[in-house]
Automatic annotation (TrEMBL):
One Pfam family this sequence matches: adh_short_C2
Domain of life from the UniProt record: Bacteria
Signal peptide (residue range): none
Entry-linked Gene3D superfamilies: NAD(P)-binding Rossmann-like Domain
Keyword Hydrolase found: no
Protein's organism: Azorhizobium oxalatiphilum
Organism ancestry: Bacteria, Pseudomonadati, Pseudomonadota, Alphaproteobacteria, Hyphomicrobiales
Keywords for this protein: Oxidoreductase
InterPro entries the record matches: NAD(P)-bd_dom_sf, SDR_fam
Record GO terms (molecular function): oxidoreductase activity
Annotated protein name in UniProt: 3-oxoacyl-ACP reductase
Family to which the UniProt record says this protein belongs: Belongs to the short-chain dehydrogenases/reductases (SDR) family.
């Protein structure tokens, strides 16, 4: 059985990715930051479906905690699956913040940097030795790295950095047959940045070829299928999952 670690698996895209991966037979380790109850609910949904999942606490902005997190993963792998390694890592955790360049503060900038670029970098580094050869890393970036959307410059810049980092991961981990790809969702109906207002959603739907914004499962199903062996030759790519957003 393949085992996947999904950061930010308590809500939104991460919760959907967790459920969809479990439906395809993967064991799931999902992380939460503030919402342990929501994470428990995702675990319960997976178990009700006949799958196996464990929820672990992780603050992606706190790289000093990553070695302790690795110990918690080691314990969960042994206890739940009798395993010493996991196969797939989905760096998904994140948050949105509207803050134009003219007024963004250093604290806002640093917070977004820690979660969206530094966190995935050092978390991947910490977990590498537990990842099986032939594994797959999926980094969740954003269509805002292609389409400039006023008010999210630091967020989009770090997502762009994560796209570049993905190619370097593919380059450096290839000798262990570990692949790395990023997926860039367009607007999806989650609680990111406080969620979408009705008016904003209608505007975004009008900018999307398929005429609506995305739902979490539009991304969850895609990531779960991306992890299948059918995609074994896909490497070092950024794939937009956006229904044709501003094309
Ligand atoms: N929704 C969109 O339109 C969209 C578009 C493009 C890209 N994305 C990206 O997709 C990813 C998921 O976003 P979403 O829309 O699913 O957001 P969401 O519904 O707000 O969920 C965010 C998830 O990330 C976790 N999280 C937030 N800060 C964290 C931290 N410091 N450490 C660890 N976990 C943290 C949350 O955990 P807790 O709830 O436990 O605190 C939650 O599980 C993000 O990277 C986001 O940038 C989203």
């Amino acid at each position: 059985m393949s085992i996947v670690i999904i950061t930010g698996g308590s809500r939104g895209l991460g919760a959907s990715i967790a459920v969809q991966c479990a439906r395809r037979g993967m064991g799931v380790i999902l992380t939460y930051n503030n919402n342990s109850q929501a994470a428990k609910q995702v675990v319960a949904t997976i178990e009700a479906d006949g799958g196996k999942a464990v929820a672990l606490e992780l603050d992606v902005s706190n790289s000093a905690s990553f070695l302790a997190f690795r110990d918690a993963v080691t314990e969960a792998l042994a206890k739940t699956w009798g395993a010493q390694t996991f196969d797939f890592l989905v760096n998904n955790a994140g948050y949105g913040l509207y803050s134009p360049i003219a007024t963004v503060t250093e604290d806002e900038f640093d917070g977004l940097f820690r979660v969206h670029l530094k966190g995935p970098f050092f978390l991947t580094q910490a977990l590498l030795r537990l990842m099986a050869d032939g594994g797959h890393i999926v980094n969740v970036t954003s269509a805002t790295s292609r389409v400039a959307t006023a008010g999210v410059a630091p967020y989009a810049s770090f997502k762009g950095g994560l796209e570049v980092l993905t190619r370097y991961m593919a380059k450096e981990f290839g000798e262990r047959r570990i692949r790395a790809n990023s997926i860039a969702p367009g607007p999806i109906r989650t609680e990111l940045g406080g969620g979408l207002t009705e008016e904003f959603e209608a505007m975004l739907a009008g900018q999307t070829a398929l005429g609506r914004v995305g739902e979490p499962d539009d991304v969850g199903c895609m990531v779960a299928s991306l992890l299948s062996d059918d995609n074994r030759w896909l490497n070092a790519q950024n794939i937009e999952v956006a229904g044709g957003y501003i094309i």
